[in-house]
Write a structure and sequence with these properties.
Number of domains: 2
CATH superfamily of the largest domain: Rieske [2Fe-2S] iron-sulphur domain
Order of helices and strands: HHHEEEHEEEEEE
Number of helices: 4
CATH architecture of the largest domain: 3-layer Sandwich
Mean pLDDT: 81
Low-confidence stretches: 2-21, 36-55
Radius of gyration: 34 Å
Strand content: 15-25%
Length: 216
C-alpha cells in the first residue's frame, strides 16, 4: 500500500458511531422511548398543575359556588352592579328614595305583589324584597326562559308605557318586573325574579350566598 493511501486511511472519520442504531437491542430501544414519553408526560402534568395554581382564590371560590363578597360602597343611587355567583349574574341595585316610595304605592298590576311564591328568603318577603330598602339583590335571570332582562329605571319610558314606574324588561319575550323584581301581570314570566341568600358584613360589604343572621 502506498504512503499516500495509508495517510488517507489514517485521517478518515470512523464509519461507526458510538451507538449503532441497527444493532441496538429492541428491548433497550423500547425502554429509551418509554423513558422519553414519561418525561414528556411529567412535563405536561407539571404545566397543568402550574395553570391550576395560577387561578386566584376568588376564581376558584366562584367556580365551586362559594359565597362571594362585594364592595358596594361606590354604588351611586340609581346604579346597578353585577356580581357572578354560581355561574349566575346577581344584580345589586341602589334604589333612590323616589323609587322606594313608588314600590310601596305602586299602581302597576303585579302577579304576586306580596311575594307569596317562594322566590326569596323570608327576610326579603316585603314590599321592597330586600334587607335594606336602599339595596335590591336579585338573580338576573328571567323566570320565563332564563334570558337576562335589561335594567330600565326610567319612569314612563316611551317604549314601555306611560304607567311604567321603572324596573326590568326582558326583551326576549316581553316580561316586565318592577324595581323589587316583582313580575307584572299578563307577561310570559310566571313568577317574580329570585332573591338569592345574602347578608351584610357592614355598610360597605355584601355577601352573596350567606343567609342573613347565619352564624359567621
Amino acid at each position: 500500500m502506498s504512503a499516500k493511501k495509508q495517510t488517507e486511511n489514517s485521517n478518515a472519520a470512523p464509519v461507526e458511531s458510538s451507538i449503532n442504531q441497527d444493532n441496538v437491542d429492541p428491548a433497550r430501544r423500547r425502554l429509551l422511548i418509554g423513558g422519553a414519553s414519561v418525561v414528556g408526560g411529567a412535563g405536561a402534568v407539571a404545566m397543568g398543575v402550574s395553570m391550576l395554581a395560577s387561578m386566584s382564590p376568588s376564581a376558584r371560590a366562584k367556580a365551586a359556588g362559594a359565597p362571594v363578597e362585594a364592595d358596594i360602597s361606590k354604588l351611586a343611587e340609581g346604579q346597578m352592579m353585577t356580581i357572578e355567583w354560581r355561574g349566575k349574574p346577581v344584580w345589586v341595585v341602589r334604589r333612590t328614595a323616589a323609587a322606594i316610595e313608588l314600590l310601596k304605592n305602586t299602581s302597576m298590576a303585579l302577579s304576586d305583589p306580596d311575594s307569596l311564591e317562594e322566590q326569596q328568603p323570608a327576610y326579603a318577603q316585603n314590599a321592597v324584597r330586600s334587607i335594606k330598602e336602599e339595596y335590591l339583590v336579585l338573580i338576573g335571570l328571567c323566570t320565563h326562559l332564563g334570558c337576562s332582562p335589561g335594567y330600565r329605571p326610567d319612569v314612563a319610558a316611551a317604549d314601555l308605557g306611560a304607567d311604567w314606574e321603572g324596573g326590568f324588561f326582558c326583551a326576549c319575550h316581553g316580561s316586565k318586573f318592577d324595581l323589587a323584581g316583582r313580575v307584572l301581570a299578563g307577561v310570559p314570566a310566571p313568577t317574580n325574579l329570585e332573591v338569592p341568600p345574602h347578608s351584610y358584613v357592614d355598610d360597605s360589604n355584601l355577601i352573596i350566598g350567606v343567609e342573613e343572621g347565619a352564624a359567621a
